[in-house]
């Protein structure tokens, strides 16, 4: 009988302990809100929960990368728009400078503004992000992208590195453009130029416009001193004399002006102007047979680049008195229309180039935004799966706890009643 009672007591204690443990586990789930407190609770669900949490961590990292990419791309996009605005203003100033009504003071004011805009462009190209990293220096993020040299030229100090961020398992997005690509690879009719070179050429153009003209005139006699390269150039200009005017088309090169004299003299009957060449000096003397005004205008020079520090092709037009002596100062004639138009065209190409770079940034920004939507949807789905696997069903658990408490109370009451009885009570 002692053995039976002992066994009964052991089984009862074991049952009470199991019920208590189950109740405590359920109470812990209520307190933590978690359905799985340890892997042994549900090994399969625990593995799935762990995988789902790791997936959400990955997705959260992608989303952070997308947010970072968007901030950097937004900054780069706005910066490139500023650069476009600067070039647009420079184009307006260049066209304004080409207006013949502008005098030297007006052109000086225009030139000064263009020079200031060059400094603004330098600041734009050296933009830094919120972390203080240079936006357009490639991988040289701790240094300036561009510097201004003592001679006024600009040098790119970065490299061609392009920053990217991973925004999905199989997708990266570029977050910048290197300064070399953004500001130094403008395709022009005379080769690739930097934005800064084009701006400098505008300044040179304005300076040259102050010293050059497209027309010159003299009474009765004039002297022409050609400044041309060794390679032949095609020239055209309008020659007007006392009788009339005609267009002159010539091929000219350094030291070879016979074609000029021949063509002018072939038109004497139309213009009244005769030409003579001094072979020793290369000077051409023009004489009007009616002693009236000689005028040269509308000069066009094929294939000449005028947007340089020094214009290479021009005519020094001198007025002569009757004795042949030069009167006053020479008027320097050249293709001033091309001087301005070529520079304006380069500015337009620079503006188009900057717009193209901005389009690239916009495409990257769109990619990031679209991927952000996809990542958000995946995060929602993954979070729901984590909730299904890991979060406790409070209503169900509370009901289960109440059921276990009832079972435990009933068992305790039965144990108390049975433990008070003896063998003789059962033999009654």
Structure commentary:
This protein has 428 residues and is an alpha+beta fold. The protein has 3 domains: 1-33 and 397-428; 59-206 and 341-375, f41 fragment of flagellin, N-terminal domain (Up-down Bundle); 215-334, Alpha-Beta Plaits. It is built from 10 helices and 15 strands. It has helices spanning 2-32, 43-97, 104-125, 179-183, 195-211, 258-266, 268-271, 336-390, 394-419, 423-427, and strands at 146-148, 154-156, 164-168, 171-174, 186-188, 191-193, 216-219, 221-227, 233-240, 245-252, 273-278, 283-288, 293-301, 314-320, 326-333. Helix 1 packs antiparallel against helix 9, helix 2 (43-97) runs antiparallel to helix 3 and helix 2 (43-97) runs antiparallel to helix 8 (336-390). The two termini are 17 Å apart.
List keywords for this structure.
rod-shaped, Alpha-Beta Plaits, single chain, 428 residues, four-stranded antiparallel sheet, f41 fragment of flagellin, N-terminal domain, five-stranded antiparallel sheet, alpha+beta, 10 helices
User: Looking at this structure, what is the CATH superfamily of the largest domain?
Assistant: f41 fragment of flagellin, N-terminal domain
Q: What is the beta-strand fraction?
A: 15-25%
Task: Please tell me the total number of domains.
Answer: 3
Q: Poorly predicted ranges (pLDDT <50, ≥5 residues)?
A: 423-428
| Total strand segments | 15
Please specify the SSE layout and strand pairing.
Layout: H1 2-32, H2 43-97, H3 104-125, E1 146-148, E2 154-156, E3 164-168, E4 171-174, H4 179-183, E5 186-188, E6 191-193, H5 195-211, E7 216-219, E8 221-227, E9 233-240, E10 245-252, H6 258-266, H7 268-271, E11 273-278, E12 283-288, E13 293-301, E14 314-320, E15 326-333, H8 336-390, H9 394-419, H10 423-427
Antiparallel strand pairs: 1-2, 3-4, 5-6, 7-13, 8-12, 8-14, 9-10, 9-13, 11-12, 14-15
Helix pairs in contact: 1-9, 2-3, 2-5, 2-8, 3-5, 5-8
């Amino acid at each position: 009988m002692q053995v039976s009672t002992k066994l009964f007591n052991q089984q009862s204690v074991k049952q009470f302990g199991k019920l208590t443990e189950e109740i405590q586990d359920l109470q812990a789930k209520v307190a933590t809100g978690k359905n799985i407190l340890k892997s042994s609770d549900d090994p399969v669900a625990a593995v799935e929960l762990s995988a789902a949490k790791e997936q959400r961590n990955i997705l959260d990292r992608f989303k952070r990368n997308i947010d970072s990419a968007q901030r950097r791309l937004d900054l780069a996009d706005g910066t490139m728009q500023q650069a476009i605005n600067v070039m647009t203003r420079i184009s307006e100033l260049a066209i304004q400078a080409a207006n013949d009504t502008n005098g030297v003071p007006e052109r000086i004011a225009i030139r000064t503004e263009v020079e200031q805009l060059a400094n603004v462009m330098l600041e734009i190209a050296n933009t830094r992000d919120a972390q203080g990293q240079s936006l357009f220096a490639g991988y040289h993020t701790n240094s300036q992208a561009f510097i201004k040299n003592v001679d006024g030229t600009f040098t790119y100090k970065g490299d061609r590195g392009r920053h990217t961020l991973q925004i999905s398992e199989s997708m990266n997005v570029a977050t910048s453009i290197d300064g070399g690509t953004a500001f130094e690879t403008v395709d022009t009719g005379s080769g690739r130029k930097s934005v800064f070179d084009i701006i400098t050429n505008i300044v040179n153009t304005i300076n040259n416009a102050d010293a050059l003209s497209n027309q010159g005139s003299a009474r009765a006699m004039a002297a022409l001193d050609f400044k041309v390269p060794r390679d032949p150039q095609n020239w055209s200009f309008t020659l007007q004399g006392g009788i009339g005017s005609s267009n002159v088309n010539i091929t000219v090169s350094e030291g070879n002006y016979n074609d000029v004299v021949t063509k002018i003299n072939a038109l004497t009957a139309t213009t009244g102007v005769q030409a003579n060449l001094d072979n020793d000096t290369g000077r051409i003397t023009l004489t009007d047979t009616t002693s009236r005004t000689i005028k040269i205008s509308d000069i066009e020079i094929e294939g000449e680049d005028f947007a340089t520090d020094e214009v290479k092709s021009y005519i020094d037009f001198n007025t002569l008195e009757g004795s042949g002596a030069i009167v006053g100062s020479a008027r320097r004639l050249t293709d001033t229309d091309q001087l301005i138009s070529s520079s304006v065209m380069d500015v337009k190409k620079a503006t188009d180039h900057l717009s193209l770079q901005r389009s690239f940034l916009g495409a990257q920004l769109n990619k990031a935004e679209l991927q952000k939507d996809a990542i958000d949807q995946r995060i929602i789905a993954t979070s729901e799966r984590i909730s299904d696997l890991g979060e406790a069903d409070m209503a169900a658990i509370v009901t289960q706890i109440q059921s276990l408490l009832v079972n435990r109370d009933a068992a305790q009451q039965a144990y108390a009643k049975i433990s008070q009885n003896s063998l003789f009570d059962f033999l009654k």
